[in-house]
Inverse folding.
C-alpha cells in the first residue's frame, strides 16, 4: 500500500477507472544484487512477460534466457549466469499492488515548471512530460525538427540512486584526465604551474 499512497490522486483515479492491475518492482535492487552493471533492461523484460501473459511464464523465461545466452555468451559464462540470476530474482521481487475502490492519497499532480521558463518548454516540453504529448498539434513543434538549445535542462526526470562521495585527493587527477580525454564540452580546464598563478 505504500506505493499506492505515493501516486498522485489523478493517477490513482485513472487506475481505478480503467481497472488497471498495478505491479511494482525495485529493479535497481535486483540489478545491484545480481549484476555488476546495474542495468535493468533484462529485469523489466522478465516482468513484462510475467505480467502480460503473452507467453506462459516458464516459456517466456526460457526464451529470455536463450536470448541472454545468444547476446552475452561471448562475454563468458559468469556474465550469462549473472543475467540468469537477474531473471530469476526479478520474479521474486515483482509484487502486485492492491488497488482500492477509491483514490486515497492527498498527493496532487503538480507542474514543476515555473512561469519564467522559455515559451517552448511551457507549451511543448511540459505537455510531453505531463503525458499530453499526443494532444499537441504538429504546428507546436519546430518546422525543421530541431529543439531550441538549452531545453534539456528542464527535462531532468531521473533521480540518482546513489550519491557520490567527495574524495578531495582524487579530484585533481580526475580533472586533468577528464579535460584531456573526455569528449564532454562542459569540462573546461586551464592547467598551469603554481608560480604562473602569481
Amino acid at each position: 500500500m505504500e506505493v499506492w499512497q505515493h501516486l498522485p490522486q489523478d493517477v490513482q483515479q485513472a487506475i481505478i477507472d480503467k481497472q488497471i492491475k498495478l505491479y511494482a518492482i525495485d529493479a535497481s535492487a535486483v540489478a545491484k544484487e545480481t549484476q555488476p552493471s546495474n542495468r535493468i533492461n533484462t529485469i523489466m523484460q522478465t516482468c513484462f512477460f510475467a505480467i502480460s501473459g503473452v507467453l506462459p511464464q516458464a516459456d517466456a523465461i526460457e526464451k529470455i534466457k536463450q536470448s541472454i545466452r545468444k547476446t552475452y555468451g561471448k562475454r563468458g559464462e559468469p556474465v550469462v549466469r549473472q543475467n540468469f540470476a537477474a531473471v530469476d530474482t526479478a520474479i521474486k521481487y515483482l509484487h502486485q499492488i492492491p488497488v482500492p475502490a477509491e483514490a486515497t492519497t492527498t498527493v496532487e499532480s503538480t507542474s514543476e515548471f515555473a512561469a519564467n521558463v522559455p515559451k517552448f518548454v511551457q507549451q511543448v516540453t511540459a505537455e510531453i512530460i505531463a503525458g499530453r504529448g499526443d494532444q499537441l498539434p504538429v504546428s507546436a513543434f519546430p518546422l525543421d525538427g530541431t529543439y531550441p538549445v538549452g531545453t534539456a535542462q528542464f527535462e531532468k526526470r531521473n533521480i540518482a540512486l546513489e550519491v557520490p562521495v567527495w574524495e578531495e585527493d582524487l579530484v585533481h587527477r580526475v580533472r586533468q584526465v577528464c579535460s584531456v580525454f573526455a569528449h564532454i564540452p562542459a569540462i573546461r580546464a586551464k592547467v598551469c604551474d603554481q608560480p604562473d598563478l602569481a
Summary: Residues 168-193 form one domain. The mean pLDDT is 84.
